[in-house]
Amino acid sequence: MPDAPGDPGAPRLFLASRNAGKVAEVQRLLAEHLPGVQVLGLADVAAYDEPVEDAPTFAGNALLKARAGVAATGLASIADDSGLCVDALNGMPGVLSARWSGLPKDDRRNNRLLLDQLHDVPDERRAAHFACAVAVATPEGRELVVEGRMPGRVVREERGEGGFGYDPLFVADEHAAAGPDGRGLTSAELPPGEKDRISHRGRALRELAPQLADLLRPR
């Protein structure tokens, strides 16, 4: 089992991600049900061969990563697969969101490509939603999968310094008229707590958290 700082008696959970922002987000969202939980990311454990994310669905890719995490670390492992589904692009980038502009993965390049693809699409046809599947696998062989969704639209320029991925281009329906000019606040402009409240990942993790707490609670 990998070493980690913090309370040795606290539950430990491996998150199959290199994204420091995502690790912090998951830790924040789970803390209510698992006080003191230590969420470890890929940077905190020994390197292992990560699975190819070749499943056709978010749930399938999340399970692939969670199962590989358990095999590599011996810890209960959580993995998510999420992406932006744009109506005008027939639901794409979808499961290809992180590598939409090719490899290596690059958020800014992905955002520029998406803006180029939607350049001539009028505002009323820029509807989209973020989708997320979160999977948990345990060393005992138990598995859970939950899904969440956040509807909104793609705007015409990047705004905000927070978040990651397509957050600077996405305005959720709940914030479509927010901001001083009424043009809506992107996910990258929202305070972390508010983003957690409405996000696809936040909704999925809130559904998952009580079940996960039961799985990880000492017997």
UniProtKB/TrEMBL annotation:
- InterPro entries hit by this protein: dITP/XTP_pyrophosphatase, ITPase-like_fam, RdgB/HAM1
What segment(s) does the record annotate as region Disordered?
Answer: 177-199
**Residue sites binding substrate per the record:** 17-22, 82, 164-167, 195, 200-201
Question: Which Pfam families does the UniProt entry name for this protein?
Answer: Ham1p_like
Give the cofactor note text. Answer: Binds 1 Mg(2+) ion per subunit.
Q: Which SUPFAM superfamilies match?
A: ITPase-like
Q: Which GO terms describe its molecular function?
A: dITP diphosphatase activity; ITP diphosphatase activity; metal ion binding; nucleotide binding; ribonucleoside triphosphate phosphatase activity; XTP diphosphatase activity
Its UniProt entry gives the catalysed reaction(s) as: XTP + H2O = XMP + diphosphate + H(+); ITP + H2O = IMP + diphosphate + H(+); dITP + H2O = dIMP + diphosphate + H(+)
Enzyme Commission number(s) of this protein: 3.6.1.66
Keyword field = Hydrolase, Magnesium, Metal-binding, Nucleotide metabolism, Nucleotide-binding
User: What are the catalytic residues?
Assistant: 81 (proton acceptor)
Q: Which GO terms describe its biological process?
A: nucleotide metabolic process; purine nucleoside triphosphate catabolic process
What does UniProt give as GO cellular component?
cytosol
CDD domains for this protein? HAM1 (cd00515)
Top-rank taxon of the source lineage equals Bacteria
Tell me which Gene3D superfamilies the record gives.
3.90.950.10
The subunit structure is:
Homodimer.
Summarize the protein's role. Pyrophosphatase that catalyzes the hydrolysis of nucleoside triphosphates to their monophosphate derivatives, with a high preference for the non-canonical purine nucleotides XTP (xanthosine triphosphate), dITP (deoxyinosine triphosphate) and ITP. Seems to function as a house-cleaning enzyme that removes non-canonical purine nucleotides from the nucleotide pool, thus preventing their incorporation into DNA/RNA and avoiding chromosomal lesions.
**How is this protein named in the record?**
dITP/XTP pyrophosphatase
* Source organism: Nocardioides perillae
